[in-house]
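User: For a reading group we're discussing how well predicted structures match intuition. Take Trimethylguanosine synthase. Before you show the prediction, I'll give you the sequence so everyone sees exactly what went in.
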Amino acid sequence: MVSPKKRKRRVTRRRQRRRRRDHIVKARSRPEECGVDFFSPSVAKYWRQRHSLFSRFDDGILMDEEGWYSVTPEAIAVTHAARAASFAGRACPLVLDGFAGVGGNAIQFASRGCHVVAVDIDPRKIGFAVHNAKIYGVEDRIDFVTGDFFRLAPRLKGDILFLSPPWGGPSYRDFRSYTLDLLKPRDGYSIFQLAQQITPNIIMFLPRNVNLNQVEELSWLSSPPLKFEIEANHVQTKAKAITAYFGDIAAGSSGLSKTCSGVTS
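Assistant: Thanks. Here is the predicted 3D structure of Trimethylguanosine synthase, as structure tokens, for the group to look at:
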């Protein structure tokens, strides 16, 4: 039998752990000025890059700890949005964001005139994404959905599907060759096969050390094979990630074509 005093201590410890794990960092000149009593070394690194993640960070952008290392740098998100906005000459394509997180990509898609359906399983992240979209003034062009992408996918339709599935945290850098089975919560092949049920026009945002041969293999999961393009993404000359384009949104004329372009901010 647990005494009321011990039960209270346990509840207090759980609350403290949750605050440390899911703290909300608001814009200030230094993290300690945000009232944050815990700031992990991995997040401290991204704090120094905060304005490359959101140019309007100082207007009150909100993120949980996972958001710091999972959000797409804004300069790269802008290139994704520019490609989507020019897709097939459509004035306002419908973009589905399957793993929206705190809204970095959804905001940029909407900023370029796309209508966006942003899905994330975490209601806290969706709350942050709604708040962040309001800062950029694009909340009216985004439908935010709290739900499991894998459960919702059979009922989703759109012109373009953007996928930035969890990479497993900053530890992705420890792999010499990051294989698609390391993606979360399912392997890259399973995610891509499900994605094709929605649209063949797919954008995948992947680690810079991803196995490119495996990424190329994804285009062959469709019959006939999808057009395919790889783009190397850089911020201030530093390699950050790989973007793979499939279907009509790819610039290549066949599943084997590859291009590489830099992104700077």
